[in-house]
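Appendix C reproduces, verbatim, an entry submitted by the partner laboratory led by Prof. M.T., so that reviewers can inspect both the input and the predicted structure.
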Amino acid sequence: MAWAAREAGLPATVFEGFYADALAAGQDHARHEGAFHIDAYDDPQTVAGQGTLGLELAEQVPEGQPVLVGCGGGGLCAGVALALDGRNRVTAAEPSSAPSLTAALEAGEPVDVEVGGIALDSLGARRAGRIATAVGLSLGMKTLTVADEDIAARALLWQRLRIVAEPGGATALAALLAHPERFPDGATVVVSGANTAPSSSMGC
């Protein structure tokens, strides 16, 4: 968003920290300043934009091959699932320390969960989005949770492919490696996010 604002010559204020707190601060700022609020994952336009990744995958991934996407609030996962609906089944991969979509699908609605772990900075949404929950329920989406030690698989991305990924970005790969029985013929994993230092990803 910051990049897009700069390219368009528009001001942008980015709020960080725990997502629920950042969301509240951003909404309050928008009300007082008359600014336009952009939700990180629970807005139709955000989901549609993230869904363009699914359109790209449709050009690259064989029909029927499973796709694994890391999930926090669920915008990326929902967008990709909608774009690939009827072509490729999408599974949401979540840290077991932040299972927001898993809890939402079990409850039938978004619910608060405790969050923590090494992927907290990118997948630490305390509550899955309404859109992601509705998409997950309507498509019968499955989720897989992985432990922090499994997410350390991001080191493999650096060692073998020289890809620097944040823990959240490696969660889909971690789910594939931790649950190979679920994908006997393999799967496509989405690696997203590079908010990390190379030295932290090289840890062998």
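Strands lie at 67-70, 90-95, 142-146, 188-189. Additional entries are available on request from the coordinating office.
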